[in-house]
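Technical appendix A lists one of the benchmark inputs used to test multi-chain prediction within the project. The record comprises two sequence entries:
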Amino acid sequence: MPLLIKRRKLKMEKVELAIVVLVLIGIMVSSGTMYYTATGLSNLISEVSRLREALEEKIAAIEASLIVGTTDSVELTLDPAQAYDYFGWCILQQIGDTLVVVKPGSLTGTDFDPELATSWNSSTDLKTWDFNLRQGVVLPDGKTFNATYVKYSIDRAIALIPSIPEGAPAGLGFDAVINRTEVLSTYRVRFHLDIPFSPFLGFLACRASAIVDPKYAPIEQVNHTAGDVRASTPVAFLGPYVLSKWDRVAGRDVEIRLDVNPNYWNLASGYPKLKHIVFRFYSDATTLRLAIGAGDVDMAFRHITPTDVLNLQTSPNVKVWWGAGVQIQYLCFQEKRAPFNDRRVRVAVAAALNRTSVSETVFLGLAKPLYSIIPIGMLGHTEAFKRLGDANYTLTRSLLAEAGYNAGNKLKFDFWYESSGHYPMSAEQALLYKEALEASGVIEVTLKNADWASYKKNRDSEIMDAFIYGWYPDYVDPDDYSFLYWAKWLHLNYSNATQTALYDQARAITNTTLREKLYAQIDDIAVEQCSVVPIWVGGAWAVTKPTVYGIYMDITTDMRYWLISK
Amino acid sequence: MGLRSYIVTRILLTIPTLLLLLSMVFLIMRVLPGDPVALHFEKKADPETMEAMRHILGLDKPLWAQYMDYIWGLVDIRYFMEHGYPNLGKSMQTFEDVGGQIFSAFPATLELAIYSMIIASVIGILLGVISSKSYNSILDHLIRGSGTVTYAVPVFFLGIIFQLIFGVYLGWLPTGQRIGPNVSPPATITGLYTIDSLLEGNFFKFFESLKALVLPSLTLGIILSGIFVRLTRTNMLETLRLDFVTAAKARGLKESTVTYGYALRNAFLPILTMMGLQFAMLLGGAILTETTFSWRGLGRYLVERINFRDYTAIQGAVVMFGLFVILVSLVVDILYAYFDPRIRL
C-alpha cells in the first residue's frame, strides 16, 4: 500500500476514533445531566437551602456573640484554689459563682447583691456569719447546689494552701480568717471565723471563694490547664456562661469561648444578654488598638494605652467607656539605713514629689494624683498627704536642712523603677520624679532600673533606697490597702504598733463611719512617718463598637460580660 | 570521605555542640539576677512559703543534681516515646510541660517561616537575577537600593504600616493572629493552620488562615529578600563572567536557558547556604514579627519566659532553637556536599 494512502487511512481512523470518543462523552454528559435533572435537582435545592440555613445560623451566632480583644491571658489556671491573676479571675467570674457579689455600678465596692446566697447575717462580734442559700440551682450534671458545695469549696481552698502556696486562698489568708465552715441545713451554711472580720463579704465575693464541683475538683489539685475543658476546670459551672473552649499555646491563651449556661439560675431574667463571648488575644496595646480600629473585635478591654484611648475617643466608629480604677502606685523608702532611716528625710522627699505632673504628662490625665493609700471613692479615702503638698520645696528644704542637707551637701540616693513593663510607663514616670526632686536644689537622684524578676529580688534583698511599687486589690475594701504602709513583704523595715492596732480595730467593726475615722487616723500617722507615699490611682476604660451596650465599669474593675448586649 | 561517612560525622558532632549549649544556658540562667520563686508571690512571701515553692520547683537541690536531672530527662527515651518530644522539664512559672509548650508554639513559627522564606526567596532571587542581567543600569541601581532599604527597615515598622493600610484603612486583611477573628482554628493535626484546615476539608478556614498569613509573611519576606537580592546578584555577576556561560551562549542556547538553567544553578550554592541559615534563624522565632502580628510562636515564648526567669522553659527553648539551627545547617551541608563533591574531599 502506498505510503500516502496508508497515512490517509490512519488519519481517517483517528478521526473516527475522535468521533466515537466525543459521542461517548456526549452520552455520559447528557445522561449525567438527565440524572441530575431527574433525581438530583431536589438534592441540589436542599443543599442550597442547607447552606443558606448554615449561613443564617452563622450570622445569628455572630450577632449573638461578643468578640473581645485583650492583651491579658490566664496566668496559670481556672482553679479558684490557685488562680490569682486579673484575667483568670475575670473568666472565673463569668463561669463560676460566689455567695455574694459586689453590686454592678457600685461606687464604694462595699454594697453587695445576693448571688448563690439569698440573705445573710453576722454575729455582733463578726466572728460568725450565716448564709441562706438559693434553691433550685442546678449543676451541669443535673445535681442541685446546696450547702455541702459551699463547705467543700472553702474547705478545699484552705486544705490546698500548703501545696499551692502561690494561690489566692494563701495570698488572701483564708486559713488565718476562716476557722471552719458548718452545714446547718441543706440550704444554710455558717462560717466560724478566727478573727472579727468586717470585710468578710468582700472575701466571699472574690473568685477564690467560687463554688467548685467536687467531681472535677478533688481535694488534691487537678491538672489545671491543658486537655479537656471540663476536666481542667474544677469550678462548678454555676455562672452565666460555661467554658466551651480554652486553647493555650506555649503557656498563654489563644482562644477562650464562653457559651450561655443552659442551667443558669438567672436565665429567666434574661441573663446573660449575649449567648457567646469569644476572647481573642493580642500581643500588645498597639496590635489591640489596630484590631478595634479595624473592627476585628467588638470590644477591646485591657490594655489600650492612654494616648490611644484618647485618640479613639474622637472616632465615630468606636465608643469609649470610662470607669474608676483601683490600681495604685506608691513610693517606698528603705528604712534600714541612711538616709531614709530619718523620718524628716522621708517627709522631705514626699513633699518634693509632683503627682500632678506625672498624672498629666505620663497618663494624660487618666491617672489621678493619690493622697491616701486608699483609692479615691473607696470607703476610708482621705486627702491626708495633701498636707505635705506637691513640689513643696519650702518644706523639703527646711526638713532637709534640719537633717544636715543643703545645696552644698545634697541628699543623694538611688531611685529605682521597674523596666520590663510590669508597671505602665515606669521609665517616663521616673524621669519626672527625678526632675521634680532635683528641682528642690537640695536633692540629687540617681535613676536605676531592673526588670521585674530582678526588681523583686532587690526588694527582698533590701538594696533599693527608694523604689516605686504598685498594688491591685484582692477584694475591694480599705482593709486590702491600708496595711501597705507597714506590709512586711515590702521589706521596708517599718512597723508601727498604733497603725496596726487601728487597722485591727477597723476590720472588727461594720459601722462605716467609725471605720472611716480609723482609716483616717492610719493615714494621719502615715503622713507623719512617710514609710510609703501614695502617688497615683489608675483609671479604667474599655473601647467597643458603638452598637455595644451594658458595660458597667465600677470600682471593682470587674467586667460583667453577662450584662453586655449589642 | 563518602557522603554517608560525612553525614554520620556531622550528626555525631551535633551531640557535643548541643551539650555545650545546654550547659552554658543552664549556668548562665542561674547566675542571672532574679529568682523564679519570688515571682510567684506578692503578699505571702515568708521564708517558709518561699522554701516550700523552692522545693516544688526542685531548686533546693544542689546545682549539679539539678543539671543531672535535666540531662537525665532529656535522654529519657520512654518519655519521648510516650509524648513525642523530649522531657524538657516543667515550666517554673506555669507548671506546664515545657516540651508541650514549645511544640505547641513551634508550628506557628514554622508556618510563618515557610511562607516568609518562600516570599523572600522568590522576590530576592528574581530581583537578584534581573539586577545582575542589567548590570550598572538604572534598574540595577534601583533593585540594589530597594534591597538595602528593605533590609534596613525595622520589621515592626513595616508590619504596622501594612496593618494600617490593609487592615485598618482597606479592611482587606486581619491585623493580627493566625486566623480571622470570627473563625475558630482548625483541629490540630500538624499545627500548621493552612494544612490542618485543608486536612479538615474546610476551605473557608484555609482562606481565613491564608489571609492572616499574608501580612506577617509578606513583612518578613520583603525584609529578608534584601539579603537574597544582593547575594544572588553578586554570585550571578561572577558566574555570568565564566567561560561555560560564554560557551553556552556561543552554542546558540536561549538567553533564559543560559541564565536560569546554567548560571543560576551554579550561583545557587551560596544562596542555598544563606537560605538555610535564615530559615534556622526564623525557626528560632521572628520575635518582632510575632509580637507585631500577635502571632503566638517560639520567639514571643522565649522573651516571656526570660522575663519570668523560667529556667526550664528558657533552657528548653534554647536547646530546641540550637537543635533547629544544627539540623538545618546539617541539611544544608549535606545538600552542599551532594551538589559539590569537593566539600567531601
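DSSP finds 15 helices and 19 strands in chain A. Chain A has a mean pLDDT of 89. Comparable benchmark entries are summarised in Table A2.
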